[in-house]
Amino acid sequence: MATTEVERRRGQLASLSIAAVVIIVGVPLWWRTTETYRAWLPVSQINELANLQLQLSADVEVVFARGTVTPEQQKKVPLTKTQDEEHTVDEDTALRYRYETKYRTANIMEEDALKQPSAADADLSLHTLSESPCGSLVVYVIPESSSLLPEDVDVYIGQRRTALLRNGAQMKVGRTIEQLLAHLEPRIRQVLKVMSFSHTDITAALSGRVRLSPGNKESIADSMRAFKSSPGYEITFSLLNPDPKSHRLHWDIEGAVQTYIQPLLTKLAPVANFSIDSQTLYYAMLGVNPRFDSSRNAYTLNSDSLAHVINPVEARLGSNAASSNPVLNFLLYAPDAQHSPLYIQDRQKQKVPSNAFHSPRWGGIMVYNVNSFYGPEAVFPVDINIDMAKVMGVFLAQLRLLLGVQSSTAPPGFLVAPCSSTGLADWELDRLMWSRSVENVATAATTITSLAQLLDQIGNIVINDNIAEQVSSAVTSLQLAVAELEAGNLGFALQYSKEAILASERAFFDPSLLHLLYFPDDQKFAIYIPLFLPMCVPILLSLLKIISDARQRRKERQAKKE
């Protein structure tokens, strides 16, 4: 009896020891070694970004030239005036515009610059005196008698960040400076909407985050036409020669790019990086048979058939697999001799003056007729030199549209200077930078919040330190971009927004986030049960036996006491 009791007690101690080792050491060790590593993320800061509250601040300087204010009014001109304008886009997005206007009188050098024979010369002279910082504007109020502006023009917008505003006769009725400023304020607000950001442009930049109202058709069309914001773009110029036996085409694409395209891209350097290549494709057809118009003795392409032109041609263009940047395609097509001349018609059956069309977020195609080079004694193939000035003028206009350089309609009484040799005015660059900054901030905020929601819903995704670092960098850059927008520092805001969108996309598309997506909980149970069940069953049975014996002994002791 004593030996049996000792063996039974030894077995119980052994079972308890094994169970203790498994519970105290084995289970924590297994849990620790098999848990999913998840680095710390700034969840509270990410949740704040889900509710996007943006403030855009623009600095406006109003300079009164001689003869626009009386000496008595000049003494009472306020130094600064701040106006706020708030818009609620949706329940998670709100916009606030702050305009800080500073008033002063023109100095001697500015008065001399305003005596130039033309508004363009005055704009250049004022620019040489002082260059306005990015995102700011200077409005010069000139007297009604000034000869800088034509009679039917009240506002001149030049190539820089400067505007000339005529002090009209209706402004003379104001006997106080307050009345004068009240007359000027609506006109200055119109200048701001043309030369700086407008609510239409900003809401269009938020099209990837909010739903645009159907009534704003113009902003919807502009947002759908232009490429989405990207750190870089690939530009490809292609010459399509479907009939090399009839004509041998020569185009100085390198010189044309340096003359017409590169100045624009140099000015757009703060927005994105650009790379350019070119190619010549022989026996490349449009894929659509043009129709012969006997009234014009020419072949035509209707607007309805233009949509079917791109796919057959795109198969011949190739792709740059080494880059993930969007590609802007510009095609110059010289029709074969059997289908020349070839003209593009609009929906009203009228010839398109440029003989070209563009496809949103893809590129543009221009038809270049060469039938006039075929003389009665021509020897085939005919050598033809392409007029690159004509071609690049069309491609430059298409490039502006595809990159989102929007030329807003000027109000009545406004005169906007034509594009300079760079193809882009300073204030047009500012408008684009405002839109790109807001678009980058909205896109990066959406990406980060979506990633945080994904990681919160799927707990078995590994969050490496690299991903946590990218997320933290994106959040920090987003906060800095929002702060710089609020301070009106447009250049820094754009730079931080680009850093935010790069870091957020690197984190969102990191390959390590996909490693454990293929192991849901039911598969884990299928793996662990055959491993742990054979070991756990004897331990559990031993523990149940020990508990049963302890209860039996307790009952026996109670019976003896009774």
UniProtKB/TrEMBL annotation:
Keywords, ordered alphabetically: Endoplasmic reticulum, Glycoprotein, GPI-anchor biosynthesis, Membrane, Transmembrane, Transmembrane helix
Annotated organism of origin: Notothenia coriiceps (black rockcod)
Signal peptide range: none
GO cellular component: GPI-anchor transamidase complex
Membrane topology: Multi-pass membrane protein
Compartments where found: Endoplasmic reticulum membrane
Coiled-coil regions listed: none
Phylogenetic classification of the source organism: Eukaryota, Metazoa, Chordata, Craniata, Vertebrata
Record protein name field: GPI transamidase component PIG-S
Transmembrane stretches, start-end: 12-31, 525-547
Pathway field: Glycolipid biosynthesis; glycosylphosphatidylinositol-anchor biosynthesis
One example of a Gene Ontology biological process annotation: attachment of GPI anchor to protein
Family, as annotated: Belongs to the PIGS family.
Listed InterPro entries: PtdIno-glycan_biosynth_class_S
